[in-house]
Amino acid sequence: MGPLAGLRVLDCSKYLPGLYASLLLADMGADVVHVAAPAGDRIASLQAHRLMNRNKRSLMVDLKHAKGRALLLDLARSADVFLEGFRPGVTKRLGIDHPPLAAANPRLVYCSLTGYGHDGPARNRVGHDINYLARSGVLGLSGPAGTPPVLPPLQMADLGGGTQAATAILAALWHRERTGEGQFIDVALFDCIVSWLTLLAGSHFAGQPPVRGELLLGGAYACYNVYETADGGWLSVGALEAAFWRNLCEALGLGEQIDRQFAPPSRQGAIIAAVQARFRTRTQAEWLEALEGVEACVEPVLALDAALSDPQVRARRMVVELPPATRGKAVRMLGIPAKFSRTPGEVRSAGGVPGADGRAALEAWGVSAEAIETLVDSGAVRLPSR
């Protein structure tokens, strides 16, 4: 099932960026074998583990064991993609870096996900999402001036890096389709966030550096902001286009503000206050009813439970439910965002405990039953029952 059916992926990543990259590939039909370490899975929540490792098979291999490393090399011979998220230098110490795997399989696409990449002065620095956002300049531009920077609730660098890795892998596979050549891909989470600066960096390069607290999309303008309603709810307004702003002002009875949409930030406070005062006269539900059919880019700020049960989410199958396993409960999953007309992806299975699919995964990739028993007896491969 899916456009990537038949593609074989070995995923040795432990954290969100790599797991998300291989999730995207698995959702589109790739045969992804997640190679987990005996130390255990790094995802604390069982539900999160099920979601991040869905549509994958889990194999627990001790890569510090000589037979474990030899097994990985053998599997790489028939793989299309190898994905890892170790710090620079770790795969070389383990003997699973690009040169030996490429020698065994010249068609292999090898993707390495790190925080700062494999070169540059920061290559060996440790980091998490907050650090990449901070060093890239994103965090320094978030929130009103004079207040602490605002942390996003999503891991922007991790998810962006995972998405970039999946995109790069597909591009490398297209190159291989034309030339027969595999290659090494170096994806740094920090680079991905820097690449997202786009409009902000464009302004800077043009001699108009963005100023915190004065950003059009950062809360400084009335036409792109959030407003509280009478019942303590919130509404988002994204009326950037003149027509949408006009429609909103007319619906609010604020016609005098129409021509002030892009007044300087120093004058926006009064406009924001006027819009806020009007929105506080009704509840969120009353405003949504009043603005129904008005093209003004207004949507409610929903709590997560309400968002996941939103009619649009249901219509687009962005929340799906897998049937319960034996004596278990049904498992809810997020859906697949890309809808293919001829080769649709499918949520086929939830992720099991690390190593749960080890025997089936090895058999499917051509490892004999006798060899599997030898690997298990040596401790190189661990199965839940052993």
Our Rg estimate from Cα atoms comes to 25 Å
CATH superfamily of the largest domain: Crotonobetainyl-coa:carnitine coa-transferase, domain 1
- Measure the end-to-end span: 32 Å
Please summarize the sheet with the most strands.
7 strands, mixed
SSE succession:
EHEHEHEHHEHHEHHEEHHHEHHEEHHE
What's the overall geometry?
elongated
Strand tally is 12
| Mean pLDDT value | 94
Could you give a short description of this structure?
This protein has about 375 residues and is of the alpha/beta class.
Structure characterization notes:
- By secondary structure, the chain is α/β, with parallel strands linked by helices.
- It folds into 2 domains: 8-196 and 316-382, Crotonobetainyl-coa:carnitine coa-transferase, domain 1 (Rossmann fold, 3-Layer(aba) Sandwich), CATH 3.40.50; 224-306, formyl-coa transferase, domain 3, CATH 3.30.1540.
- It has 16 helices and 12 strands.
- The chain has a 7-stranded mixed beta sheet, with helices on both faces. It has a 3-stranded antiparallel beta sheet with strand order 7-8-9, covered by helices on one side.
